Predict the 3D structure of the following.
Amino acid sequence: MSGLKQQLSLRVENDLNDIEAALHENLNPHVELVRDVAGHLIFSGGKRIRPLLNLLCARLCGYTDDFIKKFSTIIEFLHTATLLHDDVVDEAALRRGKPVAHSIWGAPVTVLVGDFLLARALNIAAETGNPRIIQIISEITESMCQGEILQLIKKGDVNLSEADYMDVIRRKTGFLIQGACQTGAILAGAPEDVEARLARYGHHIGMVFQIADDLLDYTADTRTLGKTIGADLKEGKLTLPVIHTLEKAGTWDRSWLAELIARKEFSADEFGAVLRLMHEAGAIDYCRGIAENHVREAKKIIASFPPSQTTETLALIADYTLNRKA
Amino acid sequence: MSGLKQQLSLRVENDLNDIEAALHENLNPHVELVRDVAGHLIFSGGKRIRPLLNLLCARLCGYTDDFIKKFSTIIEFLHTATLLHDDVVDEAALRRGKPVAHSIWGAPVTVLVGDFLLARALNIAAETGNPRIIQIISEITESMCQGEILQLIKKGDVNLSEADYMDVIRRKTGFLIQGACQTGAILAGAPEDVEARLARYGHHIGMVFQIADDLLDYTADTRTLGKTIGADLKEGKLTLPVIHTLEKAGTWDRSWLAELIARKEFSADEFGAVLRLMHEAGAIDYCRGIAENHVREAKKIIASFPPSQTTETLALIADYTLNRKA
């Protein structure tokens, strides 16, 4: 699948360089420490999927103005703000293979820099002069926080249903990626139905993105992933592979797994046993199947636009989102 | 001075009731826990100075629409968001005489509910349909975070100058109160010079507010204040009374005070000795003098408007801000 990554990289190289430059230009803090803390995470090799989608969707709708580079940072700053706060909330140790910000600068500074980035995102959104953009961005933020809170409340709850899970990931991940696509269309002045179609495309990409992310916690290796494998389970964060396994497992296995989740600690051997249970339940294939449906829907929407370089790239992104290794 | 409070209360009772109702109506979370956590702080007897100033400044500029009630919640939600995060950052125990949110619900939920309120504030700001309002609100937020970060960096630094202190409080407190007044004027469609004058009024009120707050930490009693006396000093937070005392104290006293600040722990007797040093340095009078100047400037600005019930109230607020007991 690295062929897919390479194919995509070549297509979006210039756009990614533009986004990178815009992120540097628009961070713009008054306090130097803010640049260090925010920069530590922002410039640590993020995939830039969100600003890229924003830019591509705007382009698909005929937007040609250079401002889009700046506006695409709205989504990435907002995303980074939530990552900073999430890492504090989750007491994570690694992110993208690096120690998380709060382990270097402490939770207080990290929380405040997260707030700064959130405000920075909304300040740039205000520069669009378009209240709808701002409304969408602030609604996304409201939803994301509540998605995270829901996830927090439900930690360790072995009765979490697939529907609950879908609600959480739609809020915490789906809305932002949907918003990236939708605001791209709005900035380009696209007609309502086009805006709605691209929002829908973003929704599907967002769902794939999070399901793939949650799968990686059981299928990747720590080095490639840049964070500790099995971290979700250790935190009591029940994602789709575990939810499906709990649903399909026999009484005995289910009790064993529930007990392991409750104690939040397990050996490598025990984690191996979890993976075997998942395999028996067909959980990985089940999750992939759901994600593949979303990929299919996303590509169907893109196919409804006149074919262009941009539609090809947006279709490739759908494939890449599912098949990435980290 | 309770006469002043009573005089003010009678004048603004209806407005405060309107603000209270609007805060209940517009909190509007999807997740019930958010209402509990946010409500714990929002409905714990805040003074509502900020939304009140917003409403009064709009009225002074001829605004009559009922929407102002809703818009005044922008400032209070934003304020509450920063309080939630500040209490996490400062590891405070009490706020308004109640245990702080994070001691009940934990820091993670508190951080996320703070984010929700920040987003809620900006969402309502977007409803004004006025990008300038949103820009001001997001710039205020950027400044506040950076003010808090500056304060954090400077904790325990006995070389903090009066100018540094003024910069910190302008950012962390002044800008929001200034913004409350300025956005009131903008919502009313006031001409630029009126907007600038009311922003200036707000700036002075903000400075008085924070200097008075910092004084209370050395002059009030714990029960009236609703938080622990001497808490600032225990945190290593150097405010104007201490900065001035350090400046005026002799070499020996200065070293003693610096050592006490460095160790962040002290007995009631030692705190008594700090208060005596402050008294000798004339620090309390010095701070009051600076605050009184700001009160005078604020009232001068209000006196430049045609006299009305509203100008009288705004002048009273200037006095009250300095002379409140908590």
